[in-house]
Write a structure and sequence with these properties.
Length: 160
Amino acid sequence: MRRTAVRAPAAPAASDASAAADAAGPVPAPAPDPEPRPLRTEFEFELPRGYVDESGTVHRTGTMRLATAADELVPLRDIRVQENPAYLSVVLLGRVITRLGTLPLVHDGVVENMFASDLAFLQDFYRQVNAEGHTRAEVSCPHCEQPFEVELGGSRLGES
C-alpha cells in the first residue's frame, strides 16, 4: 500500500476571501468586557500586636491608602533616611497610613514606636496593595481544585 501526502488547498485570493466572508454573514462582535471594578484606594488592616500609645491604649485596626510617586520620592530627601536607608519604610508608612485605631494623627513617630512584628506586617501589606492594587489572591482548593479568591488584607496572622 502506498501512502501519498495530502496537500492543503491553496489560500483563496483576497477577493475570494472577502466574498466568502460576505456569504457567511457578519462576524459577531467580541463579547464586551465585564464592568471593571472601581479603583480601590484605601485598604483596612489589623495589626498582629497593635500600637500602644502613651496612655496604654492598644490600637490595632487601621487604614492604608495607595502610595503616590511623591510618597516614595519625598522621604528620600529626609535626613534620617539619608543617614540610615532602613528608615525609609518608617517615613513612607507614616505617610500612607491614614487611620490607626482612635489616634487623631498617624505619622512616622507613631510607626517608629511600633513593635517589629507590626512594622514587618505593614511593610508586607504596603507591598501587596501597591504592587497589585488589592489584597485578594486567587487560590485553588487542595481537594477539588476549584479556584476561589481569598481576602488577605485585614486578616490576623495565622487566620484565614
